[in-house]
Structure formats: structure tokens, C-alpha cells
């Protein structure tokens, strides 16, 4: 029997984290021929994940350029992936999530009449401009994908409400849990000199991540001000903040935290040290999306520094709390988790809604059922 030619396309670090376990599963399975195309929408951060999972690209578009805009990326991805599809002739193209790579790679496949499989389908915030442009991207892909690999029942329901036929939807769990279980180690040793000296055993370490466009300006200033106040009020707290490479965020972080004791500004971490940092932290403060899935799997409460989330399952399960960007609300909610043991354990022990680490296997079996 001929092998099914499956082409995976991704370009950012978050996509790579969630697609690399799927690539490895395809490589191990004799029913498939795996074709990997990376756009390198993020270059260095992408490469570090490829190295961790030992994934080699068959096609590397190397599209990243300084000062690139969404339109720059989109046009390059559309043209580049179109050429790769014509050369590789896959039976199906798999894209992930909601990036500019995702939308335009999916369009390239559609224009070539190649079926599109959307991994991590059905996430919705309900606001086209938050997160921006991700909500727009995933909704558009959802409109024409042939197979929707939905992580949760809530995602399935979102797709059904939008008129997607039930037979096109597959409930799989999230591949990020597959990735997570591959790299977490109790004996992990950090290379970063700052992290080596953080007392994870005796301090309540808060991991902070903050970078989303909608938080630039005053919202981010208020978030940082709240963190500064939390540290001042709680002597047992230390904060680790891997600062995004964006110059505006770095300038603000240095201005607010530069002289603050127990706030450690470090460089962005590769995937492996980052998830082990999650594992060793007491709780998470973030405006990111993926960490809302990873941290609950490790029993870490997540305080979301946004006004909404496209991952409501975590909120319903009790592993995540959306607190917004108001300084006083942030301080109140985080202090509660720091001093109220019951509130902390309620979040830490809630059941993770994102799966059991077997999503990749379910995706492969679904493809076989449809193509063989």
C-alpha cells in the first residue's frame, strides 16, 4: 500500500513545539511519508525547538527579516509554500493554530486543491482583534479546512456552531501535552546563571511572561506595576521574567524592574528550560496562550493577564483565572493565591482539560481512516 504523504508547515516557536511531536510520530509510522516545511517566521526560536526534538526540515523558506510586517510575512508564506506544494505533491497539508504561517500555508494548499488538516482547531476568543491577528487567522482557516483536529470538546462545539460538519471534526487532545511529557525532568539543571541561583525549594517563584500586542502601552505598564507591588508585599516571592525581544517591552521592563530586588530579568528561554522553569515555579502570570495549556498539566495555577481567553476550558476546569490588566485586580488575585492555601490547591489540583499526551496518535489514526 502506498504511503500517505503528509506535509507539515510551521514557522514559529509555539507552532514548532506543538508540531514536532506530530512530525516524530509521522516519521516512526511506516504508513506515512513525512514532509516538513518550515517558514522560519521566527528564526532562532524555531531552530532551538527543531534541535530539541531532532527534527530536520525538508524545505526551509527562511522568511524572517528585520522589521517584517504581517503583510510581508503573509505574502512570502503564500508564495513559498505554493512552490513547495508543487514540488512535494503531498496528499494532505497540516497547519497549526493561528499564525500568519498557518493562514497562508493553508490558503496555498487550498489553491492547489490539497486537503488541509487544521491542528489545534476551534479555539475562539469571540473578538477578532484580541488576540490580534490570531483570532482572525484561525477563524479563516476554520472556514475552509477539510479536517479539524480539535483539542477539547469546547473547541468541537465552537466549530459545530460555525456550521462545520461533524464528520470533519476530530477530538484529539492537544499535542502540546505530548511535547511537554517528552522534555520535563525532575533533575533538570538550568544553564542560565540567574536560574541556577533561584531558590525554587524555599521561595514562591512566580514565572511572568508578557508580550501580547494588545497589552502594549498602559496595560503593560499597569501589569508591571502590579508585579512590583506584589514583590514588595511578599518577602517570600521571587519573580522570573524571560523578557521578550521586542525593544519596547525590554525598555519598559528595565525601567520598572531594573532596580527591584527579587525580580530577575532573563533572556527568552529555549523550550526545554522554559517548560522545566514552569515545572519548578509556584505559579504563573502570563498573557500568553500556550502556557495556559502547559502549566495546568504540571499542576501550576495560571493567572491570565488579559481580558479574555480563547481557552475557556481551563477557566471552567479551574486551572486558569482571567484577571485582566487592572493593577488592583491583579494584585488582589495573585496575593490571594500566595496566602490562601485552599485557593492555591484548588487551582493546582484541578484536572487539566487538554488531554493525556496521546493527541498525535489520534491525529495519525484519523488521517489513515480518511486516506486509506
Automatic annotation (TrEMBL):
Pfam families: Epimerase_2
Highest taxon of the lineage: Bacteria
Occurrences of domain UDP-N-acetylglucosamine 2-epimerase (ranges): 24-365
GO molecular function: UDP-N-acetylglucosamine 2-epimerase activity
This protein's UniProt keywords: Isomerase
EC numbers for this chain: 5.1.3.14
InterPro entries xrefs: UDP_GlcNAc_Epimerase_2_dom (IPR003331), WecB-like (IPR029767)
SUPFAM superfamilies: UDP-Glycosyltransferase/glycogen phosphorylase
Record-stated family: Belongs to the UDP-N-acetylglucosamine 2-epimerase family.
Entry protein name: UDP-N-acetylglucosamine 2-epimerase (non-hydrolyzing)
Native organism: Propionigenium maris DSM 9537
